Amino acid sequence: MEASERPRAKALQLAPPLPSVREEHAPIPRAEAWWAESLLVTFAFRCNLACTFCMVEDALDVYAGTSLEEMRRATRDPTVLRGAKRIIFSGGEVTLAKDLLAYVEAARQLPGIEHVRLQTNGVRLVDKAYLRALLDAGVDELFISLHAPDAETCDAVTQRRGSFRRILAGIEAVAESGAALFTNTAIVKANFEVLPEIVSLVAPFGPRSMEFWNYWPRGDEEGARGMNARVSEVREPLLEALGRCVMRGIPPVVKWFPRCLLGEFAACHDDGQPPSLIEDRYWEREPSYGCIYEGVCQEAPARPGGSTAGACVGLSDSYVFEHGWEEQVLAPRRGVRGPGRDDGEKVVRGDAAFADAAGVGRSLTADAGPRRSEQAVLAEFLKPLDLHVGMRFGGSWALQEVGRARGAEGALVTLTFTPSAPGGRVIVRLHGRDPARRCAVRTKSFDVSYRVEGAVRAEEAAGMLRLLFEQLDGRDPGGLRLP
Ligand code: SF4
User: Fold this and answer.
1) DSSP assignments along 128-196, one per residue
2) Which residues have C-beta atoms less than 6 Å from ligand 1?
């Protein structure tokens, strides 16, 4: 087909650029990916507020949560704590748990842990003796949710009269205590217009960071709650709020809002979330995200279902049900992959340092479970073989990536192993058994072959492959199927 015959793309009416809302000299800090070095531990699934947008509403008074003993047991596995410098406790409302201090003390005993953070609504922190006990036990970071700058809006959102006054008193108490204060605001229809005022209210308390999380519609898959504010309407007050943060020296972070609408604040966007100890069924209602431009936009995950580390996940299905795909509003970025940052550092951050385990377990959106996540499907497949992406193998090797495909020889799964010295890799292929196929080894369920690429020493690859073949053979019970 000649170029002139191709159907013409519909001209997009992109949202006009907004004027800069900050002073020229105020540098915009990049979102700190604190989640990449954190482990989230959840318990205390009950609450003294009743926020209209609650993302664990179905879990309250239902989930047992991670017991202290379960936390201790899980964190004995070094892969669970891998790279973690921070334990984050969240629920529900963890300050309602009588044994919270014991959790904090246990967290402080864990190897490599430098920070213990509570995600809380802050209501109980007004009790200074209680706050002091938390700090003495080892809490050094308080991440407090505040969703409005006035009592009327706040109390309407939390559905508890007096909540605004108590939350603010909790924020003040934390600021006075010297502990690190962080705030979080959920962006919903009820509050998006007052986001800048929230910054003005909180800034005098000296927060280390202010986060703005666009509505996370867990349990609201079809947008029935009517919480999703139009991104085109949120954009202006959100940018104003981010500008106020920057002018006051407070690093802002934005999650689950289209990165392409953040203009000069794109570097403040980060959709990552830490790996979590939480009941499996939490993931069954995980919101799905996508973008109509994900095939062309360099900010989207590199492949459908792939790692979301450093990427923009687009809009939730819930949002799309309520408002559509916003194809006239979004502005896909074509060019070098990376979250709105054209420098080399970004590429390193997005693709290596933070893309731990190829995204598995490193992001709520990537960790959505077999219902939608490709990586989750493959992780399930690897489990009986005692393999997972990101694991060290045979000393100096790492299982870097897993993928699946359908070729001339039928379905296959590929496992990519890389040595600690860069420059080469070994790709192992698993096919279903076929007596006519030539392969390196045949387990009860699979034909296994491999290919060595790049600068890999033959004896080093042979050692790793020998171990791998032994493991596959030993672990394969027979009857396994390729996903
Ligand atoms: S993937 Fe690209 S086009 Fe889609 S919302 Fe994100 S930045 Fe915008």
Assistant:
1) HHHHHHHHHHT--EEEEE---SSHHHHHHHHT-TTHHHHHHHHHHHHHHHT-EEEEEEEE-TTTGGGHH
2) 258-260, 291, 293-294, 297, 299-300, 312, 314, 330, 332-333
